[in-house]
Amino acid sequence: MHIEINGARLFFDTVGSKLEPRGEVMVEKPSLLVLHGGPGFDHALMRPYFDRFADSHQVIYLDHRGNGRSTGKRETWSLDQWGDDIHDFCQALGVEKPAVYGLSFGGMVAMAYAARHPEGPSKLVLASTAGRMDLPATYDAMERLGGAEARRIAEVFWTDPKAETAAEYMATCMPLYSPTQNFQAQQAVKRAIMNMAVMFHFIRVEQGRMDLLPGLSAVHCPTLILAGGIDPITPVTCSRAILAALPKGVAELVVFEAAGHGVHRDEPERAEAVLRGFLEEPAQT
Fold first, then answer.
1. What average pLDDT does the segment 168-182 reach?
2. The CATH fold of domain 2-133+181-280
3. How far is CA 154 from CA 107, 129, 163, 238, 275, in A?
4. 10 Å Cβ neighbour count for 105?
């Protein structure tokens, strides 16, 4: 399905109904908006894992503008616009107070959304993400996991992203994101739609000036931060910085010590249990 939002045609899909018949009444389920990583990928990365939450929520997937099946002009590829898209998407479809799960780049979009529209989400889950990148820590982690060659390739890619350096990075460094060989995750990458232009633009333009941490002082909804203890691309230091930037008492950080980037890939059962526990807690009104 598509919807026109802020000059872009955004693709979205849902799993599960919003209204569920229970005896003589129709019960409304809360919404869980799942924001994919990248940038340059699509929501296929998040499926089918998050489909399981359709038993308690209507799960909504969205391809960010310029990603996957969504359109959007290059000059609008910014975190401010991506964050505003979430707000306006929810307004257009009548999605009220969604719980928002953002993975990696999707977590950055979720932070932009919540900071710019703090009345929007009922809950936030910020998974394997960063408000401000810590590339020196990333390079150290790549060397620790893959040796000097992995560090060299990472430094070249993050300094000069283009087709040649991206191919080398994806072959050598991306396998280091996760310590497990998750077959489902591997299939998701193969079926994903990739727009490398969005990725290169983000690294060259947005990433260098990205500092989402100050805006987090406006966030007041319950927030769960999930981090992998051996994540090389958004190290635990990034999650701790997010926790410190949020108002006191709003957030909880859960570190999966043996997991990499995307804790649901390396520890799917524990990740599900932690997320279900958080989603089941009453939301603030």
1. 91
2. Rossmann fold (3.40.50)
3. 22, 18, 14, 18, 31
4. 28
